[in-house]
Design a protein that fits this description.
alpha/beta; Transcription Regulator spoIIAA; 4 helices
């Protein structure tokens, strides 16, 4: 399940993922986000999430959807919080693909929400 919380004051959308998220649920959340007026900053919290249902192929399809729709967030930032090793590793794959694929916004993976928040709102 993906819960979406929008903080318009900070131009931030937080996606809280819980349980064993499916590829379809993730794609629906992404498409819904880009269909509206996407915020400059996004935070994907994978604290209660298990990536056991997400294959590398599914992750690639998710990334391709992000890449296709991503121009609406030029200059933005996406932080992924993944405290567990498997989810952190999958997040790093997305980060690597984002760098190679030339997404128009930065993507980084963190272990804690505090680290992610510091980076999201830093002036770097």
């Amino acid at each position: 399940m993906v819960e979406k919380v929008v903080d318009n004051r900070n131009d931030l959308t937080v996606f809280k993922c819980s349980s064993a998220l499916t590829e379809q649920e993730c794609l629906e959340a992404i498409r819904s986000f880009y269909k509206e007026s996407p915020t400059k900053f996004t935070l994907w919290q994978l604290d209660g999430f298990s990536a056991t249902n997400i294959s590398t192929d599914a992750l690639r399809r998710i990334y391709e959807t992000i890449r296709t729709l991503g121009n609406k967030r030029k200059g933005g930032k996406t932080a992924i919080v993944a405290p567990l090793d498997l989810e952190y590793g999958l997040g790093r794959m997305i980060q690597t693909w984002a760098g190679i694929g030339g997404l128009p916004y930065e993507t980084k993976v963190f272990r804690t929400p505090e680290e992610a928040g510091q980076w999201l709102f830093s002036k770097e």
